[in-house]
Design goal:
The complex is a heterodimer of chains A (473) and B (459). Chain A has 473 residues and is of the alpha/beta class. In chain A, strands 2, 3, 4, 5, 6, 17, 18 and 19 form an 8-stranded mixed β-sheet that branches. Mean pLDDT of chain A is 88; it is low at 1-47 and 55-71. Chain A folds into 3 domains: 24-66, no CATH class; 73-128 and 423-473, Urease, subunit C, domain 1 (Roll), CATH 2.30.40.10; 130-421, TIM Barrel, CATH 3.20.20.140. Chain A contains 13 helices and 19 strands. In chain B, the strands form 2 sheets. In chain B, strands 1, 2, 3, 4, 5, 6, 15, 16 and 17 form a 9-stranded mixed β-sheet that branches. Chain B has an 8-stranded mixed β-sheet with strand order 7-8-9-10-11-12-13-14. The two termini of chain B are 26 Å apart. The chains are: A alpha/beta (473), B alpha/beta (459). The interface between A and B is large, with 51 and 49 residues.
C-alpha cells in the first residue's frame, strides 16, 4: 500500500478529561445531571443510575464547574425530507422542528412557530449526525504516551488540537461527534475526550458538554511490540495481563489507604494523615469505582475472554472492545456482559492478530446480540463512515436501519452519549446530516451538516463550505 | 485434488445462487483437506462446455447497457454478447439464469501489491520493495509474486480479475511491474505479462535518506534524487552505446574472420533500463505536487521515455498542463487527504476534473488487502462529478488500454477473454454483492479463507 492510505497500525489511547485537577467524580455528576433533563435514558448501567441520584442533589448546589455552556437558541425547521430516524423507521416527506438546538418534533407534519427559519431538504435523506466511536484525530500526533504501559492519568484533552483540519474533513463527511482516544501502546492508556465537530469555534465549544469519561485499555500485539522492542515488560501476552493486573492491585491498595483514612476522619481522629494523592492511582481507582467507561483495544477471541475475566476479577465493566475483529468467534460472551464492539467494516491482514478478520464480523456479532458500531480509527475513513456502514448490508445482510445504527445510535452508546445523540428523536441534540444521494451507498455525500441545530457545513458554499470558519484561523 | 474445485457439475439450467451454494458445499467438504485450497492458486483447466449467462443486465462498457442480455462464453473466450432475441445459444451449453443480475467485465486494478505481502506487520511475509538502493530497475515483481497468497481469492470474490503488481514506492526506481490474472495453478499461469512497466517515483516528500544532517546520505533531497535518476539513464545510454559498439565490432570481426572483441560486462541495472530508454515499455511516473510533477516530466522527456502519470493528487493547479501531456493518469487514490488549506473534496473531484479535460483516467487500489474495494473508489468519484460510464471504464477498458491488453480484456465483447462478473446490482456501489466470477470462462469458487472462517463460526 502506498504511503497515502497505509493501514494505520498505530497505537492509540483515549481518555475523557475531567476538568484539570478537579476530582473526577464531579465531572461525572455534571454529566449525568444534564442527561436527567432528557426524556429517556437508553443506557441503564447501574453506576449511572446511582450517579443520577446523586446528581439530583448536586444539581441543587451552586455549580461552578460546568464544562461548557449548553447550546442555545438555534431554531430551524427542516422539511420535505426522507427522515431516517434510526429508532422508528423512515418518514417520507417528513419534517424536523429544532428548538434551542434540540429536536422538538419530528414527523410527517410538525408544528413550528411562524418565522422559524426553514431548510427545504428537497426530498433528500436526513440522518442523525455520524458518531465515530474510535478516532485519534486532532491530537497533533500525541496519541501515545508510550513511556510506560500504565498511563491512566493521561488526559487527551491536554493534547486536543481543536484547529486540526481533520475535524473539518470528518464533518464534511457527516461526522458530528467523535471519541478521541489514547493510543494502544499501553495496557491502560489515557482518558478520552468526546468532541462535537463544531469546527471554527473555540476549543471548549468543541467539547461534548458533560459527556461521560472513557479510558482506553489495550491488549495484544501493540503493547508487546512497544515494550518488548525495548526489552521491557510486557513483551508477551502473559506480560500484558500481568502488567494490567499489577496496576489494578495497586489501585485496590490505594483505595484501601483512602478508605482507612476516611474511616479515621469519620471517627474523629484528628491525627489522621491523608495518603499522598497519586494521579495515576487515582485514575486507576476510578476504573474500579466504575467512574470510567472501559474501552479496550482488543483483537483476538482469547483476549476478549481474558479481559472479561479480568473485569470480573476486579469488578469493573467493559463498555466496548475496539477493533474486535474476532468478535464473531465468541459473540455470546460479549453479549452476556453487554459489551459493545467498535469494529472495522472490512480491514484485515495488517498484522497477525488481524489475520482472522472477516467482513461478516459485524453482522454475525450483531445477530448474536452484540451492540455493534463501525468506527474509523483513521483520519481517512472517518470521512466516509456511511460507506463503511453500508458494507454491512453486503456482508451479512444488515438492514438499512441496522447499518445506520452502527454509525449513529450504537456508536453513541459506546461513547456513552446515546441519550443525547444518535437518532432523530424528540429531546435529542439536533445533530443532523442532509445527504445528496442515498447515504448507505457509494453515492451519498453530505449536503449540509447541522450540530445543535446550527449549520456548520454546507456543500453549496464556496471555499471550504464552512459557516463558522474564517480563512487563516 | 484441486481440480475438483472447478467442476461445476449438476443440472442446468440453475440459478446462480445454486452455483454458489454447490461450490460452497464443495468448499466445506474440502476444507478438511487443508487450508491450502483456499489460497490463491486455482487450477485453470480449459473451459470445456460453453457457458451462457442469460437474462442479466449487461454493462458492456463498449456498446452500452443491454437489458435482458445474453453472454456466451466458450473456449475461455466471449463468443457472443447481445439482447436475448439476437444471440444464438450453442447446443449443449450450460445455461446460467442471470435474471435480475448485473453482468460486467472483470475489473482491473492498475496498481496493487497482491502476492507481494501476506501480513503487513510481519516482515517475513513481505516482498514489497528492496530498500538497499533507490535505483533498482532489475527487481522483478514477477520473481516475488506468491500465487498461493490468501489475499488473491479475497480480491477475486469481489470481481477483480486482473491487476498490476507493482513494488511499493520506497525507491525512486523500485523495479518492474507485472500484470496478472487472478486465477491459475501457479505463478507462471497467473503472470500474464512480466516486466511490462516500471514505476519512477518522484513524490518529493518520500525521501528515506532525509533526516538530521548527521544521518543524511545521498540522495537526501529532490536535487539528489533527480541527479541520481538522470545519471542512471545517462549510464544506460552509455551502456546501450557500448553494446551497439560491441555488436558492430563483433560483426566486423566475423566479416574479417578475426577474433571476436571482448563483450562488455553485463550490468543488470542498466540492462533493465534499456527497454524503457527505447520507449518500448511504459514508465509509471509518480508525482503529487505540480513542482515534482514538472521536474519528473522534464526528466522523462529529456530521455524520451514513454510514460503514464501516477497519483498527481495535489496537482490541481496544473491540470491543463497535465491534459496537454496527453498521457493517461492513474489517479490518487482519491482518498488522499487534501492539503490543509484545500477544500475537503479537492482530491475526490480530481477524476472528474481530469475527465473534463479529456484525460484518460484509471483507478488503482494501491493496496493488497483492500484490492476488493477498487470499485468503491470509482463509485465515489461519480458523487463528485465523474460520469458513471467513465467511472466504470476507469476500472475496465481504460485500464486494459493503458496496459496494452484491450484486445483481450476490459469489455463484454465477442473475442475477448471471458473474464466476466455477475453481481446482484450496480458494480460501483459498496452494497453490491458479487455472486459469480468467471475467469477464462470458468466459474471461480466463490470462497476464500475468509468465507471459510465465516462458515465455521456462523453455524
Amino acid at each position: 500500500m502506498r504511503r497515502t492510505i497505509r493501514v494505520k497500525t498505530a497505537i492509540g489511547a483515549d481518555g475523557y478529561a475531567p476538568q484539570g485537577l478537579k476530582p473526577a467524580f464531579l465531572s461525572m455528576l455534571n454529566g449525568t445531571a444534564e442527561s436527567r433533563a432528557l426524556p429517556k435514558t437508553h443506557s441503564a448501567s447501574r453506576w449511572r443510575q446511582f450517579v443520577l441520584l446523586l446528581a439530583c442533589v448536586i444539581a441543587m448546589l451552586p455549580c461552578s464547574f460546568s464544562q461548557a455552556a449548553s447550546p442555545k437558541g438555534h431554531d430551524v425547521l427542516i422539511k420535505n425530507a426522507t427522515v431516517m430516524t434510526v429508532t422508528h423507521g423512515n418518514i417520507k416527506g417528513g419534517s424536523i422542528y429544532v428548538k434551542d438546538g434540540k429536536i422538538a418534533a419530528v414527523g410527517e407534519k410538525v408544528n413550528a412557530p411562524a418565522g422559524t427559519p426553514v431548510i427545504d431538504a428537497g426530498g433528500k435523506y436526513v440522518t442523525p449526525g455520524i458518531v465515530d466511536s474510535h478516532s485519534h484525530i486532532a491530537l497533533d500526533d500525541d496519541v501515545n504516551e508510550a513511556t510506560s504501559p500504565i498511563t491512566p492519568h493521561m488526559m487527551m484533552k491536554d493534547a486536543f488540537d481543536y484547529q486540526d483540519k481533520a475535524i473539518y474533513r470528518a464533518l464534511a463527511g457527516g461526522v458530528t461527534t467523535s471519541l478521541l482516544l489514547h493510543g494502544s501502546a499501553n495496557m491502560i492508556g489515557g482518558q478520552a475526550i468526546v468532541i462535537k465537530h463544531k469546527y471554527g469555534l473555540g476549543r471548549d465549544e468543541l467539547l461534548f458538554p458533560n459527556a461521560p469519561r472513557s479510558i482506553k485499555f489495550a491488549s495484544g500485539e501493540n503493547p508487546k511490540r512497544v515494550y518488548g522492542g525495548r526489552d521491557q515488560l510486557p513483551s508477551t501476552r502473559m506480560g500484558n495481563f500481568a502488567v494490567q493486573r499489577e496496576a489494578l492491585v495497586q489501585a485496590q491498595d490505594y483505595m484501601k489507604d483512602w478508605d482507612a483514612y476516611n474511616e479515621k476522619i469519620k471517627r474523629g481522629d484528628k491525627d489522621a494523615t491523608a495518603p499522598k494523592r497519586d494521579l495515576k492511582l487515582e485514575a486507576l481507582a476510578d476504573i474500579l469505582r466504575g467512574k470510567l467507561m472501559v474501552q479496550i483495544h482488543c483483537y483476538r477471541a482469547d483476549e476478549f475472554l481474558n479481559e472479561i475475566a479480568m473485569a470480573h476479577e476486579f469488578g469493573y465493566k467493559i463498555r466496548a472492545f475496539h477493533h474486535a475483529l474476532e468478535a464473531y468467534k465468541v459473540p455470546e460472551d460479549l453479549a452476556k456482559d453487554n459489551i459493545g464492539i467498535a469494529t472495522f467494516a472490512d480491514w484485515w491482514g495488517y498484522k497477525q492478530e488481524a489475520w482472522d478478520a472477516i467482513p461478516w464480523n459485524a453482522v454475525i456479532a450483531m445477530r448474536k446480540g452484540v451492540r455493534v458500531a463501525i468506527k474509523s480509527d483513521s483520519e481517512d475513513y472517518t470521512r466516509r463512515l456511511n460507506q463503511e456502514a453500508a458494507k454491512t448490508m453486503r456482508y451479512g445482510g444488515a438492514t438499512e436501519e441496522e447499518a445506520l445504527k452502527m454509525i449513529t445510535l450504537n456508536a453513541a452508546w459506546i461513547v456513552g452519549v446515546d441519550n443525547r445523540v444518535g437518532s432523530i428523536d424528540v429531546g435529542k441534540d439536533a445533530d443532523l446530516v442532509i445527504w445528496d444521494g442515498y447515504p448507505l451507498s457509494s453515492y451519498g455525500v453530505p449536503d449540509k451538516v447541522l450540530i445543535d441545530g446550527e449549520v456548520f457545513f454546507d456543500r453549496s458554499l464556496p471555499g471550504l463550505g464552512m459557516t463558522k470558519y474564517r480563512e487563516g484561523q | 485434488m484441486r481440480n475438483q474445485w472447478l467442476v461445476v457439475s449438476g443440472r442446468w439450467p440453475v440459478k446462480l445462487s445454486a452455483v454458489s451454494s454447490q461450490l460452497a458445499a464443495k468448499c466445506r467438504s474440502l476444507a478438511a483437506l487443508g487450508m491450502t485450497i483456499l489460497m490463491g492458486a486455482v487450477v485453470l483447466i480449459a473451459q470445456e462446455k460453453p457457458v451462457v449467462l442469460k437474462g442479466g443486465r449487461l454493462l458492456t462498457v463498449t456498446h452500452g447497457v443491454i437489458e435482458n442480455g445474453v453472454v456466451v462464453m466458450q473456449g475461455g473466450k466471449i463468443t457472443a454478447v447481445g439482447a436475448a432475441s439476437t444471440v444464438n445459444v450453442p447446443s449443449g451449453a450450460q445455461i446460467v439464469d442471470a435474471t435480475g443480475m448485473t453482468v460486467y467485465p472483470g475489473l482491473i486494478d492498475s496498481e496493487s501489491q497482491l502476492g507481494l505481502t501476506e501480513i503487513s506487520a510481519e516482515a517475513m511475509t513481505n516482498d514489497l520493495v528492496e530498500m538497499s538502493d533507490e535505483i533498482m530497475p532489475h527487481m522483478h515483481t514477477a520473481e516475488a509474486f506468491h500465487a498461493e497468497s490468501a489475499l488473491i481469492p479475497v480480491a477475486r470474490l469481489n470481481g477483480i480479475t486482473n491487476a498490476i503488481i507493482a513494488p511499493e514506492s520506497g525507491d525512486t526506481l523500485p523495479g518492474q511491474d507485472s500484470f496478472i490474472q487472478l486465477a491459475g495453478a501457479s505463478a507462471n499461469e497467473m503472470l500474464m505479462i512480466r516486466d511490462l512497466a516500471m514505476p519512477l517515483n518522484f513524490t518529493g516528500g518520500e525521501r528515506r535518506n532525509r533526516g538530521g544532517f548527521e544521518k543524511q546520505k545521498f540522495p537526501a533531497t529532490r536535487m539528489g534524487l533527480a541527479a541520481q535518476l538522470r545519471q542512471a539513464f545517462l549510464d544506460a545510454q552509455d551502456y546501450k552505446a557500448k553494446l551497439a559498439d560491441y555488436e558492430r565490432k563483433k560483426a566486423d570481426a566475423e566479416r574479417d574472420k578475426k577474433a571476436p572483441p571482448l563483450a562488455p560486462k553485463r550490468d543488470l541495472k542498466l540492462e533493465a533500463l534499456l527497454p524503457y530508454l527505447d520507449g518500448k515499455k511504459t514508465i509509471v511516473l509518480a508525482a503529487e505536487s505540480p513542482s515534482d510533477l514538472e521536474t519528473a516530466v522534464n526528466l522523462a522527456n529529456e530521455f524520451k521515455l514513454k510514460f503514464v502519470l501516477n497519483h498527481i493528487s495535489h496537482s490541481q493547479p496544473v491540470l491543463d498542463y497535465v491534459a496537454s501531456l496527453k498521457v493517461p493518469v492513474i489517479i490518487g487514490p482519491i482518498y488522499q487527504a487534501p492539503k490543509d488549506d484545500e477544500r475537503y473534496d479537492t482530491v475526490y473531484s480530481l477524476p472528474a476534473e481530469l475527465y473534463k479535460r479529456g484525460v484518460k483516467i484509471v483507478f488503482a487500489s494501491y493496496s493488497a488487502h483492500n484490492v476488493r474495494n477498487l470499485p468503491d473508489q470509482a463509485g465515489y468519484a461519480t458523487a463528485f462529478g465523474l460520469p458513471y460510464d467513465e467511472a466504470l471504464k476507469a476500472i475496465t477498458l481504460n485500464a486494459a488500454e493503458v496496459w496494452g491488453v484491450a484486445d483481450r480484456l476490459g469489455s463484454l465483447d465477442a473475442g475477448k477473454t471471458a473474464n466476466v462478473v455477475v453481481a446482484n446490482g450496480d458494480p460501483l456501489d459498496v452494497k453490491t454483492d458479487v455472486k459469480q466470477v468467471y475467469i477464462e470462462g470458468r466459474a471461480m469458487p466463490m470462497t476464500s479463507r475468509q468465507t471459510w472462517l465465516r462458515d465455521q463460526y456462523s453455524k
